[in-house]
Backbone:
């Protein structure tokens, strides 16, 4: 490591989860010129599993921030440079490290590139494009495959642009060349409906800036307001432009992207079977009220979900075969002697399923405390990736939305998921007479590869029996 590298330390995007390959920068807490200390949180990133705060591993002064908020960055890419010896005077900081593929391409480029100044913080892709622009006579590197270029653009930090025919350096771009702009500027142009090829660049070396995009948007606004005869193509498409103007496109990323992939994989991998049962839970609802007054439950959140969770744990103890997983690769069924109880939680970033480790070993007060902590952490968006790993069965409480029940999809790697519906006052035959009783509907989905109809029915019947007569929590446990 050179003296410059020892002084200017690059912090690369770490793998904050289990084998994750990228993360989106949600918020920066520091800017160039700010003093940072070892362990200080410098930014918040969102992975496919959760939002995580990243601490800085160095003491010093921030020299460069390589990516804007909202940009998705590959793991291993430098995101910030810290000057660990700011009192030593001015010096050149190392250029940001790009992904390995980009590094290999950079080595193939001709020499003579302009160095990135300290604190400038340009993304590697922008630097490489400007270097080619400054050498019209140099031979370009081979073009990337189209799929790789598209994926890099989706990730928010495109690799080197495909070289075009040599042309004299000029402020305006050749028509065959892709307009030069950073990923945030491209996103802004896309959101405003501006074609970057029509924008006049004012940035260094022909780079399009945010101001250029806003100026182009302002220039096109009056023209859009002026009435004009509709072209034949617009008439043929049925006014598609007008329809798109009334639509909002939201990028699929982060937790929502991971959830979508997991649900598709689960739905088309595990053969789902869902069974339903309607049960009188009047006694359980009375027990909830009694527990709220119990000194041993003081300060804990006691609700029907707590007793549903306990009922499921007792049912699993009576039918341990359901607590299993299907190992397709090794063609084995994995029976588990522990229960990591997942609780599906809706958050602003999407659906997550954190789980309570070794839930079967917890007393009722311990289970109540774990449930309260789990829900509170999920609502704050602070659930750690480890808290969502290793689940065995899950509960989804659709009743909080006033829904009677549903057909829940299995969390990948799990054997069963229980849907707890809304508790409603309904006419019910009780002791030979029709009386108003508190009733709910339960739905149990299970993987039919390892859970047959008899086993699934026994588990669901046991849960219902416990909720109808909660004293079975004692006699069966």
Residues:
């Amino acid at each position: 490591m050179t003296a410059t590298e020892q002084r200017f330390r690059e912090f690369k995007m770490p793998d904050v989860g289990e084998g994750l390959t990228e993360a989106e920068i949600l918020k920066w807490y520091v800017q160039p010129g700010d003093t940072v200390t070892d362990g200080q949180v410098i930014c918040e990133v969102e992975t496919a599993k959760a939002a995580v705060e990243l601490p800085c591993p160095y003491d010093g002064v921030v020299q460069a921030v390589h990516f804007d908020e909202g940009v998705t960055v590959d793991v291993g890419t430098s995101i910030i440079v810290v000057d660990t010896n700011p009192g030593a005077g001015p010096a050149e900081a190392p250029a940001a490290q790009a992904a390995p593929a980009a590094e290999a391409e950079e080595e193939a480029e001709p020499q003579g590139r302009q160095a990135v100044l300290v604190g400038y913080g340009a993304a590697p892709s922008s630097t490489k494009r400007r270097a080619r622009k400054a050498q019209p006579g140099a031979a370009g590197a081979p073009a990337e495959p189209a799929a790789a270029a598209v994926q890099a653009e989706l990730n928010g930090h495109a690799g080197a642009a495909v070289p075009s025919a040599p042309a004299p350096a000029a402020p305006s771009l050749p028509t065959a060349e892709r307009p030069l702009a950073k990923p945030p500027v491209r996103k802004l142009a896309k959101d405003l409906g501006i074609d970057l090829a029509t924008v006049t660049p004012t940035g260094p070396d022909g780079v399009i800036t945010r101001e250029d995009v806003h100026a182009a948007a302002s220039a096109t606004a009056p023209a859009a307001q002026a009435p004009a005869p509709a072209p034949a193509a617009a008439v043929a498409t049925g006014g598609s432009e007008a329809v798109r103007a009334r639509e909002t496109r939201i990028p699929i990323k982060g937790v929502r992207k991971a959830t979508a992939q997991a649900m598709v994989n689960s739905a088309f991998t595990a053969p789902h079977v869902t069974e339903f049962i309607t049960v009188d839970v009047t006694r359980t609802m009375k027990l909830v009220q009694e527990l709220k007054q119990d000194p041993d439950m003081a300060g804990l959140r006691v609700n029907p979900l707590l007793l549903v969770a306990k009922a499921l744990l007792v049912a699993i103890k009576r039918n341990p075969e359901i607590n299993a997983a299907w190992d397709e690769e090794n063609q084995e069924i994995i029976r588990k002697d522990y229960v990591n109880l997942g609780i599906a939680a809706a958050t602003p970033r999407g659906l997550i399923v954190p789980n309570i480790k070794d839930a079967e070993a917890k007393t009722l007060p311990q289970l109540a405390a774990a449930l309260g902590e789990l829900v509170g952490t999920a609502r704050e968006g602070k659930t750690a990736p480890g808290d969502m790993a290793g689940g065995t069965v899950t509960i989804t409480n659709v009743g909080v939305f006033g829904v009677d029940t549903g057909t829940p999809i299995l969390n990948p790697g799990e054997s069963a998921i229980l849907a707890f519906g809304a508790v409603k006052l309904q006419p019910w035959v009780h002791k030979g007479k029709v009386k108003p009783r508190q009733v709910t509907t339960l739905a149990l989905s299970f993987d039919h590869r390892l859970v047959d109809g008899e086993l699934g029915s026994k588990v669901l019947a046991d849960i219902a029996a416990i909720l109808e007569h909660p004293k079975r929590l004692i006699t069966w446990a």
User: Anything to note?
Assistant: The CA atoms of residues 339 and 389 lie 12 Å apart. The radius of gyration is 29 Å.
